[in-house]
Each structure stands twice: as C-alpha cells, then as structure tokens.
Amino acid sequence: MDRVRQQTERLSRLFRDAGAVPVETSVLQPADTLLDLYGEDIRARAYVTSDPVLGEQMLRPDFTVPVVQRHMEEGAEPARYTYQGLVFRKQEAGTGRASEYTQVGYEVFDRTDPSGADAEVFALFAQALEGVTLDAFTGDIGILTAAVAGLSTTERRRSALLRHLWRPMRFRALLERFSVPASRVVPQLVSDLPEIGLRSSGEVEARLAALREDAQTAPLDATELRALQAILEVSDVAPNALASLRKIADGLPAISGALDQLEARLSALASRGVDVDQLNFSGAYGRTTMEYYDGFVFGFHADAQVPVATGGRYDALTRVLGQGREIPAVGGVIRPELLEALA
C-alpha cells in the first residue's frame, strides 16, 4: 500500500509540474443531474442513496464530471487541473475487479489549440507510464459522430444511432433495421377509447406518428452504410488508418472535417516526440467507455486486462454543464495500483 501511495504522489507531482492546479471533489455527488451524463454503463454501476436533506446522492464514480462542473461555474481560462482519490463502481460477481479504487487525473481546458491539448495529455501520460510495458490505443469518437450526422436520412434515425453509439450491439441492430424497407403496419389511434396507463393519448399519438414516419422512410443509402461500417473496421497504425479513412470519406464526405482534426492531432503528437508511425488507431476504440467522450480517445493497456490509463476529449460535456457556455476540454486518469502491480 505504501508503494501505491508513492506511485500516486509521483503521478500527482508530475501533473502539478506540468502546470495543473490540485482540486478536490466531494465523495458524495448529486445523482439527479450527473447520472444522466455518465451513460448507461456507469448508471448501472453507481452506488446511489437518498439523503433526507440533499436528496438522491451517489458515491463519486469518477472525477471528470464534478471537475468540469466546478470549472464551468468558477474556472478561469485556460486551466489545468489534477486530482487524486477514490472512485466507486459496482462490479459483476466473479470479475475480481475492485469496487473502489484510486484515480489520479489530469484535465486541460483550453480553446486555443485543441489538437495541441490532445497531444499534451497523451504525451504526458506516456511519460508517466515510461518503464512499464503497455500498449497504447487511440480512436476518435468525433469521426463516428460526424459519419452518423452526415447520413442522408431522417433526424429521428440519426438521433437514434447517435444515442446508441456506445452500445455496439444495439447500434448494429439499428443499422440493420434502417438498411431494409420498413414493413410494419402502424395502427390509428381510436380517439374515443378511454386512457389507460401512464401515457396520455397525446403521447401515444406522438409515438404512432414517429412510427408512421419511420415506416415511410427509405432505407439508409447503401454507399453511406458501407462507409460507416468501414470506419468501424479500420484498425492500423495511425498514419495508415488516416489514409484508409480518407478513402472512406469519398463515400461519406461528412467525416472530412473530423479527419482534418485527426491529421492535426497526429502532427501535434509527433512534435511532442510520440512515434505516431507505431501508434495504434481503431475506428471502434472508445465505444464502450464514458459516453461523454466526443472526440479523441486513448488508453494504455497491459494484455487484455483493465486499462491502466484512459482518457479523451469531452467538449460536449462542457456545453451541458456550462448552461450555454463551453470550452474545449480533454483529460484522462491513471490507476496507480494497476501501474504499481506492473512496475
């Protein structure tokens, strides 16, 4: 345990030396707002309780959301923060994973150079993990988001796909459903029937209208569908992956802007000494992590174990918590006990 504490302090000192201000957050966090931001996986694993004064509360499942909330309320720009402490998540029986463990994190809020900030965080984490045999993986949720947003279909279908981007099986099922002609027959609402249950007749009619619209919508464009599926299959070192994605953009030009950002990020990483020619990139990486990531994502893994470090960009989260204000933001966390076990 002493060695884990020493590892924790070493990481914290490294982040402070990089310009981060130490911050603390309460172990108890308000559940009503924050649970919706974490996504389905964390909601299912959060420890939630009810307080007679504070209302529904949860044990802190991560630091990023409360740190963002604090920054958007009172932070100056640009800003860098570091933190350390326990987080709490329920685990499935038999996994052997800890339900409480330490995280040490580093977060950057800077609107001047997002690609440079991405590179800063990744390079700093690579430095923190030097001497330990780990495989680094990267991805970009922004490319997938741009691909879905660029599909020539209804807003309803695009929204459904975006909502399930982090649930690979559900996402694939929706793609399959939207790629064939709809065959359902939608009934009409009989207005003189009594209302039964919790939904009003207006809500039922709105749902029927949505089903009618979906039934009349043409299948997804075959070229766009193939391009979207091809993005998910890209897996190579980063420069080769970028070249493959550029070819895919011929059939789905909506991703071109996101690819420009990827190219700028690779350039920024190279300028910080990262060997991008050996850096793994996967079009599907990051789809089972935090749902608030919306751009660059990364992780450092030892074999098939739980990642020692993870992180990513979460610009949209600052918009939600900023109530109209926003700032590009990126960060990550390291688990010192896993790092110490490998050292």
TrEMBL record:
<dbReference type="InterPro" id="IPR041715">
    <property type="entry name" value="HisRS-like_core"/>
</dbReference>
<dbReference type="GO" id="GO:0005737">
    <property type="term" value="C:cytoplasm"/>
</dbReference>
<feature type="binding site">
    <location>
        <begin position="62"/>
        <end position="64"/>
    </location>
    <ligand>
        <name>L-histidine</name>
    </ligand>
</feature>
<feature type="binding site">
    <location>
        <position position="107"/>
    </location>
    <ligand>
        <name>L-histidine</name>
    </ligand>
</feature>
<feature type="domain" description="Class II Histidinyl-tRNA synthetase (HisRS)-like catalytic core">
    <location>
        <begin position="3"/>
        <end position="232"/>
    </location>
</feature>
<dbReference type="Pfam" id="PF13393">
    <property type="entry name" value="tRNA-synt_His"/>
</dbReference>
<dbReference type="InterPro" id="IPR045864">
    <property type="entry name" value="aa-tRNA-synth_II/BPL/LPL"/>
</dbReference>
<feature type="binding site">
    <location>
        <position position="103"/>
    </location>
    <ligand>
        <name>L-histidine</name>
    </ligand>
</feature>
<feature type="binding site">
    <location>
        <begin position="292"/>
        <end position="293"/>
    </location>
    <ligand>
        <name>L-histidine</name>
    </ligand>
</feature>
<dbReference type="GO" id="GO:0016757">
    <property type="term" value="F:glycosyltransferase activity"/>
</dbReference>
<dbReference type="GO" id="GO:0004821">
    <property type="term" value="F:histidine-tRNA ligase activity"/>
</dbReference>
<dbReference type="InterPro" id="IPR004516">
    <property type="entry name" value="HisRS/HisZ"/>
</dbReference>
<feature type="binding site">
    <location>
        <position position="89"/>
    </location>
    <ligand>
        <name>L-histidine</name>
    </ligand>
</feature>
<keyword id="KW-0328">Glycosyltransferase</keyword>
<keyword id="KW-0808">Transferase</keyword>
<protein>
    <submittedName>
        <fullName>ATP phosphoribosyltransferase regulatory subunit</fullName>
    </submittedName>
</protein>
<dbReference type="GO" id="GO:0006427">
    <property type="term" value="P:histidyl-tRNA aminoacylation"/>
</dbReference>
